[in-house]
Amino acid sequence: MARISMLRFLLLCLTLTIISCMHLFFNCKETKDEVRNVPLHSQESEAMNNDVFIPNIPIHKNDTHELADDTNNPHKLAVIIPFRERFDELMEFAPWIHIFLTNQGVRHKIVVVNQVDIHRFNRASLINIGFIKSRGECDYMVMHDVDLLPNNPDLKYTFPEKGVHHLASPDIHPIYHYAKYVGGVLMLKMSDFALCKGMSNIFWGWGREDDEFFMRMKENNLQLLRPTGITTGYNTFKHIHDKVKRPRDYKRYGSQKQVQFKRDTETGFDTVQYKLASQKDITIDGAPVTVYNVELLCDIIKTPWCDHDKPK
Ligand code: UDP
Ligand code: BGC
Question: Any idea what the CATH number is for the domain that residue 258 is in?
Answer without folding.
Answer: 3.90.550.10
